[in-house]
Amino acid sequence: xxxxxxxxxxxxxxxxxxxxxxxxxxxxxxxxxxxxxxxxxxxxxxxxxxxxxxxxxxxxxxxxxxxxxxxxxxxxxxxxxxxxxxxxxxxxxxxxxxxxxxxxxxxxxxxxxxxxxxxxxxxxxxxxxxxxxxxxxxxxxxxxxxxxxxxxxxxxxxxxxxx
Length: 163
Known about the structure:
alpha/beta; 6-stranded mixed β-sheet; 5-stranded mixed β-sheet; 11 strands
């Protein structure tokens, strides 16, 4: 299964559309947003032909984000846990680096998905893989906007630059 991972879209409609197109082209069956949509209009384009999951980011100031996600997906609030194809995933925005590290180091998850820093990253520690898909380009994160896909069949993580 292909899992699309996105975070920190911050109401950038063109980047949201690019992410949705990338996930559709990759054949994603599940999409996970790691928070910071900001407003509900940034949520609705993710209503696609996949299972959709999201967590709250520190800039998701409109509480209608939750009800908008729940119209077609699952909203976890601050943190969520998923099991997909036998793999356990923790989803958290990433506001606290210490919490991200604790999720990775606790040994309960195969994957920890997070955003917040706007800097893509992928590392393995003690059998757990941490994946940050990136976010819109804002200093100090100079990289272009990117999303990630994860294949549960191969374990391959691929970053897709969109901006």
